[in-house]
Write a structure and sequence with these properties.
mainly alpha, 0% strand, single chain
Length: 306
């Protein structure tokens, strides 16, 4: 009985020691707040040593990208994808072409030389194709991530927009105000709203500026909002009432998406359970019995043969 309790007591004692050490090493609340504030204030400060190297690397990508042959059809889709990922500079497309060529050539050289293993031309050409495709996939991933951030920020932005419009501000001034208020929490959506304000100041019609917003983000909820605002402006209906109705609809859609994701959790957990957890459980539960069975049964079979 005592020998059975010793492992349990050792486990409890070890857990208490680990908990005590963690509590001692845990920083205080004030220290954690100061550290977080320092991270937020120093996040955007450029590194003086890395900036020249980064500029030289970007210049190299630009020189290579200028010499790459381009397809007009591909350029339009890539430029739109770059804008949706947040890269609006004119040379972004050229830099992307240079990065793609350099990455493809780098993988080709890696597999065609004896750096790690024997040279393999088949793997080298496969790496060349993968290096040409992977940057596009990474760009699509960045655009999807940015669209997800904007989609999450849209509900809060709509609430602020409704409050601002109902307080007496016009739609343009309300979008400017909401963009400035969301600059810290949701910088992506804030930049898009500020860009709308700049387009309106430049003399672009509101409908065209709103359509550009939908194209730049690629968010379906934002496209529906743009369509609703254009129709509201065209037919002269109440902007505040339309925004409030759409805000309620958007929150309903967010709740339905959350319920859908929760419903998919059971299906997604099947593969980790089957391939990761169940084998470990079977080894722990059936393993000792199987070992005992082998050690007892095989000698009996050998004795019966003799």
């Amino acid at each position: 009985m005592v020998s059975m309790l010793l492992p349990l007591l050792a486990f409890v004692f070890g857990s208490l020691i680990i908990t005590a050490v963690a509590l001692v090493m845990m920083p205080g609340k004030a220290v954690a707040i100061d550290r977080r504030l320092e991270e937020l204030t120093l996040r955007d400060e450029p590194d003086a040593d890395k900036k020249p190297r980064l500029q030289a690397l970007i210049a190299l990508f630009k020189r290579i990208g200028d010499k790459v042959p381009r397809s007009p059809k591909e350029m339009g889709s890539l430029r739109l994808r770059l804008v949706q990922a947040g890269y609006r500079r004119e040379e972004a497309l050229t830099i992307f072409f240079g990065m793609r060529v350099m990455f493809a050539l780098g993988l080709f050289m890696f597999f065609s030389t004896s750096i790690v293993a024997r040279p393999n031309m088949l793997m080298a050409f496969a790496g060349l194709g993968a290096g040409y495709v992977l940057p596009g996939m990474a760009l699509a991933r960045l655009a999807k991530r940015r669209a997800h951030k904007i989609r999450l920020a849209l509900a809060d932005a709509l609430d602020l927009l409704v409050v601002s419009v109902e307080a007496g501000l016009g739609l343009d001034q309300a979008m400017t105000r909401v963009g400035s208020e969301l600059a810290f929490a949701y910088p992506d959506l804030s930049d898009e709203l500020k860009l709308i304000n700049l387009e309106l100041r430049a003399g672009k019609p509101r409908a065209e500026a709103l359509r550009n917003l939908a194209d730049r983000t690629g968010v379906d909820d934002l496209s529906s909002l743009v369509t609703m605002l254009i129709q509201t402006d065209k037919f002269g209906t109440s902007v505040a009432q339309s925004l409030r109705v759409y805000s309620d609809t958007l929150r309903t859609k967010r709740r339905q998406r959350a319920e859908e994701a929760a419903a998919k959790t059971g299906v997604k957990m099947v593969f980790p359970l089957v391939f990761c957890i169940f084998p470990a459980v079977w080894i722990v539960t059936i393993g000792p019995a199987a070992i005992r069975f082998v050690t007892v049964l095989f000698p009996m079979i050998d004795n019966m043969k003799k």
